[in-house]
Amino acid sequence: MSKEKERRLLRVGQSIHNELSLLLLKDTRDPALLDVTITGVKMAQDFRAAKVFFSMLDSSNKERVHRSLKRAAPFFQGKIGQLLQLRHTPKLYFVFDETPEKGARINEIVNETMLDRQREKNNLSIEQFLAKRISEANSIFLCCHRKPDGDALGSVLAMKRILQLLGKSSVAYVPDEIPATMTFLPGLEDLAHTIDDGDVPDLTIVLDTASPLQLHAEVANAISQQRMGHVVVIDHHDRFDEKFGHTVVRRASSATGQILFDLIRELVWPMDDVVAVCLYAAIVADTGNFRFSNTTKVTFETAAELLNFKVSPTLVAKALFDTFTLSRQRLLGKVAETLVLLNEGRYARLICTRKMLADAQGSLQDLEGFVNIGRNVIGVEVAILVTEIEGGAKASLRSNGMCDVAAVAASFGGGGHKAAAGVTFGDCSVEEAIARLDNEMAKLF
User: Fold this and answer.
1) Residue 408's closest CA among 368, 334, 325, 349?
2) Do residue 134 and residue 221 come from a single domain?
């Protein structure tokens, strides 16, 4: 048996152990079971059965208790299935634990399980608490930042499919136009483009978003007015809003898609070809097809695991990086002509105006990756693309690893990673935004 499978067996067994202990403490009405303590769980290798060891302070009544546990097994199995959302709910077989160290172990476990609900929450890891929230939620809302990139969109679609495999319905809200480069992703037809103001979800999961400022205004407002239920944030950005979200799963990772992959393993969530394609695309997008500095050994190991499913790396890479519209190619030339090098060639700046967009018949989605025109110039450490938008300007910042552009973006209310960040300037012309950025970059160098 592989070490990974051994770890999964241990994790599932421990989860069943914890939930059974709490069920015995809170939900059982059989007086014969009030003295029972679960001392261990041993999983069958196919996860379809579990041997549950139990004991009690007064062992003279063990036969009667054993019969009561056998009668209650279907009830416990149903509850375990609801709480843990396993692909196959294991059949429970109760066995009296006669180990010599029984007495000490009983006292230890009794102390662990005599907890109220708040204490129970505090004893769960963030990840376990997330799984519990999902299990208990009747309505779930998913969203991500505005103008989603491959990681954001791939993560939303993967999470929606995971919930579906868990038997949970959800609304995935992405009102933006989907760029042509991402139309290969499965599940796009199930995305919601409007919000029903009358619906208040039990649980909202926000993916790949560092701050509510990055959300669509209607979602951000609903969260601020506490109309989105319990808000979970799953994200990997270095710079973030510390007050954002009730439960936050934030890890230093190559992509939010990578975090979801890790959660699938840790929480024994189901995965199929659809989930695998979405996660692979999310990771490929945020690592620049495994070229950026956030690519690690773990990234390649995850990609290899995902390729065990029906995932075509050729299709994903071609769609994300080698598929362009004619308008995009025309716009590329116009933006490239604005390239200037400043600060002794260490800082490259590009501009895209609304007139340039109109002349090329392009869209803001066409600008994806254009900032790298500057970053790829020899000697450049930081590149910035300043884009004119309605009511202001926005800037995409990229670093070759020497400078922290997330800190630069944060000084203007933006955010992101050390090597990739963004900021929006409201009520600010392109010229004013450029002046502010140039001034900040002069300080950096």
Assistant:
1) 349
2) yes
